[in-house]
Amino acid sequence: MPTGKWWGEHDGIDFPHVIMSQQFSREQLEVLFKLTTLLKGMLPKGMKVDWLRNYIISTLFYEPSTRTRFSFETAALRLGAGVISSENAAEFSSAIKGETLSDTIRIMSDKADLIVLRHKRNDAALEAAKVSGSSPIINGGSGTLQHPTQALLDVFTIQEHFGKVEGLKVAMVGDLKRGRTVMSLAYLLSKYKGVEITFVAPPIAQMTVDIKDHLDEYKVKWNEEEDFLKVAAKSDVVYMTRYQLERAESTEEKEQLKKAAESHIMNRTVANAMPENSIIMHPLPRVEEIRWSVDSNPRAKYFEQAKNGDYVRMALLLMILNQDKTQELISLPIKKAA
Amino acid sequence: MPTGKWWGEHDGIDFPHVIMSQQFSREQLEVLFKLTTLLKGMLPKGMKVDWLRNYIISTLFYEPSTRTRFSFETAALRLGAGVISSENAAEFSSAIKGETLSDTIRIMSDKADLIVLRHKRNDAALEAAKVSGSSPIINGGSGTLQHPTQALLDVFTIQEHFGKVEGLKVAMVGDLKRGRTVMSLAYLLSKYKGVEITFVAPPIAQMTVDIKDHLDEYKVKWNEEEDFLKVAAKSDVVYMTRYQLERAESTEEKEQLKKAAESHIMNRTVANAMPENSIIMHPLPRVEEIRWSVDSNPRAKYFEQAKNGDYVRMALLLMILNQDKTQELISLPIKKAA
Amino acid sequence: MPTGKWWGEHDGIDFPHVIMSQQFSREQLEVLFKLTTLLKGMLPKGMKVDWLRNYIISTLFYEPSTRTRFSFETAALRLGAGVISSENAAEFSSAIKGETLSDTIRIMSDKADLIVLRHKRNDAALEAAKVSGSSPIINGGSGTLQHPTQALLDVFTIQEHFGKVEGLKVAMVGDLKRGRTVMSLAYLLSKYKGVEITFVAPPIAQMTVDIKDHLDEYKVKWNEEEDFLKVAAKSDVVYMTRYQLERAESTEEKEQLKKAAESHIMNRTVANAMPENSIIMHPLPRVEEIRWSVDSNPRAKYFEQAKNGDYVRMALLLMILNQDKTQELISLPIKKAA
Q1: Residues 55-114 of C with CB under 8 A from B
Q2: Which residues pair with A223 in a beta bridge?
Q3: pLDDT per residue over B136-150, tens digit each?
Q4: Which helix (H) or strand (E) segment is A13 a member of?
């Protein structure tokens, strides 16, 4: 396992494993975001470097996700690494023969220098990190709770736009109960002073008690609201989420969620009611919770946000696998992307 | 979006997007085919160059096709590009969660420098081109109508063999109604003077009116025949196609197609009845419409044709992504492949 | 097709095709294993060379196997080759449209410089080798009988540990009837003098007559036993296998196999009864036939064995595709991996 000056244990996880968003210290976040900004300036499309040329990165996806997989693979390739990839490990790997995840990871960690794991189980990434030996694990989404690289790119996007995170008013809207992205994001936002979070969701989809307890512990102000327009009008960030019908536990619940999905829609009226310098975010994919007409609104930030994901993941890979280059880069003055 | 001297709008499509076979001007085809011939001479198996080393090419296949995907990926790798690949995006991507193709392409186009898209819908590639920003789209097969790179490799194969396309007699045989390759080919052939096309198919599988109207408009002589042996005996090119049972709309239609499939078989008798310098083509995969015994006939060109596909795709990628190298190469004298 | 001094026909197969374990001569095995040892010393994780930089290797898997595919792809990437990959060719390729394997291979062999094929049919690799032209085929597992690279890595692991294979006592345990790995291994072991094999399995899963006849022909001593503990106590190698319930031909047989699976378990008691310098092997994946508590026993060799697979495959690829480098390397003195 590589070691580095920015690493160490936080909340029980040893970076360079990336298991949960709350594991990151503010110092680690600062290094990561500075590196992200630099890479975004240096590596537009059509550019490639060889800083990870000796490494093989494995994307081991037990839950298919072309978008997240492509983001990690793009990051790896633009930095010169090789990629071994499984789109659908749940069906195509030995899992189907009854092999445990631990056995799979022990074997894969002899092949890949770093493993990006996406899995249905909440504890999958943590379990993998325990047996992966010298290969760091990056959680590419696990179960219903964590999607740490999503949270990192979310916070980076906020900081890039506002120049800070402290003191911002953030509204989270939609299926908060089933959305691991908003949970990971809430954990990460709790590291910044003065952030205020408003949860806008029907009761069937409201944020879980776990997260609210965590926010209380970290003295983050939060409240619940039903009136979307009113909340939007005074938020710096409106973070929309999709109703995850496929995670419903019964046909009845699915129907209720479908109906709830109609209650909080980001349309032109809501978007225009938002403050001038505010932004609309979404982890994507969206279905109908953000109307297409909003895409051209200057507040719409969700495609830029997705693009930032590629650079945050590049920065993470570089920070983990090539510390010399990381150190060299973060000593440079920042040049903004065009 | 890159721009180049051979590019521009034809039939409503701006090259470097490659959406439909008829979009190509004769000048573009000449550059492309000259480049293809050069690359075929310079890049046999076991050879690689780095002319696209800074680029990432995505193969985004909503309809699985190992052959076409491997052809594009081989082309990309031999030119030094990186590849991010989805074998089965219809099941493994956010499409399953209700995301629109436009949203997917907007996100993917921030990752890949060029996207090869294969999709069930006829208008998929065109829709993608509208939102893909600076990343060109290549249609790797869409719906029932278009498979432009197949048509390009078909015409290249004809020109490579005969030294010209003008004035040739081409027979298209089999399931013409469901075959997007013959449709794309017919569009492309209409650009060459004096080509005569004979459609040989049972009524249930005959060529569509759209194509016939197009040929009429471009003053291409065409006719329909049932007597395969008679047609074969006076054709320069016999282009066989597979009966696409999987595209049948009912069990009844499927049964009728199965029966029709037995009516026009390329066997040793038909092959030997063809003129000496004629060729037999097929987009592959074949089932039984060309007998194995024909493979050793000197007229059998279908495996060479498939191989040409790799080089046409290489030429297309190079022409789109590296114009300086393209310009340098097409100024060279042609050295034929061994 | 490349040719080389270590190649030639053995048992009807021309190396560099790798079709069945018994095709290898002792001289070929010695070159391969020396090369494997060298590469294991030279190419730990985080290291890459460019000795195959001009080549494209295709992993064409009709039976999904993330582990074996990743092993070949890791080997290819660490040596600098490009990879085109299909996780599930049975569903995603033209096989589903009725194309023959021969046609597929003829086409793929124009794209890839070497094809790794995994297939359900016993004769698939041999059939592929007949039509693949200048592209060598490596059998990545075919049907119920052969998995030659597994056998190679097994014998390499034995030789690495004991410094020799001759004269060792090997117990094969579990579902021997359905296990292609033990069959391939038995064939390969028959090339070494004085090896004694004991088959430990319930009648429903005992080794096939074919293999026993082969061993008789090559004068390899073998016998069948039921008392696992007694056999383990006097074996140098205990090779465990998984009961392949998914290959059962009826629900009844499946139930019988499930029951049989409980009869020969490698647990702490059995492991500790084994001789001091003995080893426990398993092709993996395991289910419950080796208890987790055995993993920390110094005799447990199965994860090292899996890791050796990556290096044996690297050695095979290099030996086939770059003989100059192979020759140069095997002239070097061996430096053991740490």
Answers
A1: 55-56, 58, 60, 82, 84-89, 91-94, 96-99, 103-104, 106-108, 110-113
A2: A198
A3: 999 999 988 899 999
A4: strand A13-15
Q: Which three-class secondary structure state does DSSP give residue B128?
A: helix
Q: Which amino acid is at C208?
A: T
ipTM computed for the complex: 0.92
* DSSP letters for B231-279: HHTT-SEEEE----GGG-SSHHHHHHHHHHTTTS-B-HHHHHHS-TT-E
Does A54 touch chain C if contact means CB atoms closer than 8 Å?
yes
Report the SS3 class of residue B332.
coil
- Alpha-carbon gap: C108 to the closest alpha carbon of chain A (Å): 20
Instruction: Examine the residue annotation and report whether B68 is marked as an active-site residue of this protein.
Output: yes
Q: What is the pLDDT of residue C337?
A: 55
pLDDT given at position C64: 85
Interface test with C, best of A56, A69, A116 (most C CBs within 10 A): A56
CB within 8 Å: C45 and A93: no
Residues 6+ apart with CB under 8 A from C215: C186, C190, C197, C222
To the nearest whole angstrom, how far is the Cα of C138 from the nearest Cα of chain B?
A: 17
Q: Phi/psi of residue A200, each to 5°? A: -115, 105
Looking at residue B113, its pLDDT comes to: 97
Task: Give all domains of chain A, ordered by start, each with its CATH number.
Answer: 8-146+309-324 (3.40.50.1370), 148-305 (3.40.50.1370)
pLDDT digits (tens, 9 = 90+) for B256-277: 888 888 889 999 999 999 999 9
The candidate with the shortest Cα–Cα distance to B100, out of B84, B123, B82, is B123
Model confidence pLDDT, tens digit, residues C131-165 = 999 999 999 999 888 999 999 999 999 999 999 99
Say which of C45, C85, C285 has its CB closest to residue A113.
Answer: C45
